[in-house]
What does this fold into?
Amino acid sequence: MNSRTYPASMLGRRTVLALAIGLASVSGSALAQSNTSGSIFGTVEGQPGSTVTVSNPQIGFSRTITVESDGRYRVTQLPPGNYTVTLQRDGATVSTRDNVSVTISNGSDVSFGGASKASDASTLEGVSVTATALPSIDVSSVDTRTVLTAEQLNKLPIARDVLAAAQLAPGVIANSSYTVANSGGVPSFGGSAASENAYFINGYAVTNPLTAIGTTQLPFDAIDQQQVLTGGYGAEFGRSTGGVINVVTKRGTNDFHFGVYTIWEPKFARAEARNSYYPDTGFYPNSTDGTIYQYNRKNTYFRSTYGAYASGALIKDKLFFYVDAEMTKREGQAVASNITSTSVARTGWNEYQYKIPRWTAKVDWNITDNHHLELTGVSDKSEYTSKTYGFNYADDTHGSTQNSGVYTKDGGDLYIGKYTGYITDDFTVSALYGKQKQDHLQLPYNYNNACPFISASQQVRVPGFNYAGCQAYASSVRVPGAQDKTHGWRVDLEYRIGDHDVKFGADRQIAESYTGTSLPGGYGWYYGKVATGATAVDAPHGVGAPGPAGGFGTDGYYVYRGYTTTAARVRTEQESQYVEDRWQLTDRVLLSLGLRNEQFSNFNGDGEKYAAQRHQLAPRLGFAYDVFGDSTLKVYANAGRYHLAMPNNVAVRAASGSLGTNEYFTYTGVVDGIPQGLAPIAVNQALGYSCGGNVVSTNLECGTAPDPRTVAAKGLKSHFQDEYIAGIDHAFLPTWNWGAKITWRKLRSAIDDTCTPVLGGRCFLFNPGQANTFNIEEDDGTFSTVTYTRDQLNLGKLKRKYYALDLYLEHPFAEKWYGRIDYTFSRSYGNTEGQLASDLDTGAGGQADVSVTQDWDLPQLMQGANGRLPNDHTHQIKAFGYYQLNDDWRFGANAQVISGRPRNCTSFYPTQDKGLYKGSFYYFCGLPGTAGYERSNRGTHGSAPWLYLVNLNVAYTPTWLDKNLTFQFDVLNVLNKQTPTAYNSRYASERDVVSQTYNRELNYTDPRSMRFTVRYDF
It folds into this structure.
């Protein structure tokens, strides 16, 4: 596998050295050899038996191996960094390559000898020392990825956030329906849901254990490299049908370094946020159409970060340390929407503050030259304080008396230990263990757990009564002691046998969550009013009409007592084993053959297993063809199957003893919000929604955990997807690369819940689109087993497909600049987004019940569900880079032009069938019974506007201060285009009432902001 080196005389020494840095920085493709390290490989023509030494004096690393009989060598499990590669014969140095850059999971080709090596002596006589220009194309790889180095993360104008950095990769977009506080939208990879990604820090999985949405963060300055795997990854990676975000932290070296930095985002440098208005529906011209919905112009804040780091050697060449700590503060104010004037008058003005302390520490110990131990600690915590006051939309003023508020504290600490042993030249072992704990605390302002929650809008109040209770603004609180914990281990063995590089591995991770919410006092009083003479308060669930016995029942007034408690202690266990063979079939052809086996188990609040998947075989196959044998043109392809487990949140309601009941009454009076003279409203228990007496529950959440045999279908398959990729990478000039890639993904199996009428009012986790077998508990306590075909369930066939064409053009850092541009044409379509339901976003985000969405609950919900999915963005153009004008000045840019996501129109179902959900959830548009009412398939109402984001920065690093001081100025969203990214799709608020908020713009991109950075590095 020969490579081509351009002579220094042709490129100039600065260009050659720049290439060595730039070529490994943002690569179009590489092989997942290890999630924390890389490799160096190559050939030594005509010199079998010689030795190659790979060394990095900065970290005290040196490893010598013997060149094999076919002239090849390979050194794996190398920590990221710059290395020197030395060829020796009979103990004498023959040739040396300096400044060889190794990035995460990347293979760097360093070959010696041959006529194509203009920089080497063809006979390897004498000594040759070469400034290394690595081949642009990694021909040892079959997957697709983007690797961002610390240098690039600091030079590019992006938000200082792991999730934001991932969006530089092609095909990755932010799902605005699912956001993380102070982070923005969670990324979606290749049309998948935002919960289908895997996140790692130093090899340990840090995906949110409760919901799988988001990840543990760390100080941005502590990132050494961030790898974004967008497809085709090897058998060592799993538990993702989206993408993988893999972070490796910085480490200490023999040189001592210390630095301080401050980052300031002032209020005055932030543009005004655009106001949100009620849409023009044509039905409310004299009330809400075109009027203000939310006053956002006063929604502003400042943010500041102060940090410091230190690194060095405690014992030269042996023991190293690195530590980075920072504090971020954000203070601002926000105005609530104008849709609930009563609450806005009391709590519409919010003054808030975030405190986000984070730190990362790492110790590396070279026990011997062949044994290495590393320990990592990461802390990610966030405190939020909110004080709310009244707001008056008539004159845009706010009060000065605090009426409500909340204090929350989230996050915790992560610890990882990893051992790497180079047992022989051909055998390497690594072992990892980690654990993490995150606590969640919520303290509402003036919270009184003895007071029930009171909900009573002005429209449902009987005149003259006092509906103000002692707790009207704390509707729910987290259960005390809420927390998430994970712990797990991983072992990887790598053995080289001739032309085969074989890896074996196994891992196990356990995630536990104690979570849930409850109402103050455990319940609340909810007042309502129906039209005079109405036949029912809630007909679908058997609740009759208010009667005369309750005093005001004849006028339609009623109240219900609602209990809502979802506390549960739940657990998931995930295990895997894999084997992978990288077979160098010929000098130019590499085959990658892998097989992964995974096991998932989910446990309810009583510690009982309610769902499990075993023997989930996931084959991986790929090849790379070095067309010319000089690493300038590669053709590659891969195919694989990828499985995904259910997160902990599934068990909180579906499998544990959650309580969600309503009991309806008429009443004769109200004292301090508490109804008096209660008279129960009769319930038709034959409909099957009663928990006993007059208590009803939509999902039969009666406070008792269901038998685990009745939670999920028997033999439940996991969520899994098949993927096929083919591409080409070409270095057509010394400083220019281009490539093309096609991707095809198909979701083969999913897990969701269903309450289809065939099941008699019962709800089960099941595999949509196929036959399922259920355990049915009979009235006498016995069980029967029933199998229903897909047609009998009447829910249709599962469908989620994605195809894409990716093109890129890259100029590795040379001639003072680096640049890359990507274009992606893609389609994501089907009848399910996957584990989430972004379509249900009405302003507060999409449905958050991961893997138990509203999809598939009822056959009527799936009519018209096939179409463009919410993560479909047909066109994506991304361009970023930087220009080093001289030793003092640098300029950077980052631009994205992305077409908008599809829009829907949903309404009530045409008929009021028994068991239907009451709401504007169905793929019909208009009001039932009107001439304009029609079937409205998913994604057929146009798209959100195109997104145009341009970020710029400039940095000044004066040479007269030895380049230790840096001033940097970033402008994010220079054009200040505050583009709506989604729209409210719900046409009706009642069967005969158009919603005032249908087509309302949701989730605007952030207004223009400016960021000032000052850092001093000693």
The chain is about 5% helix and 50% strand. Confidence is low (pLDDT under 50) at residues 1-33, 114-132.
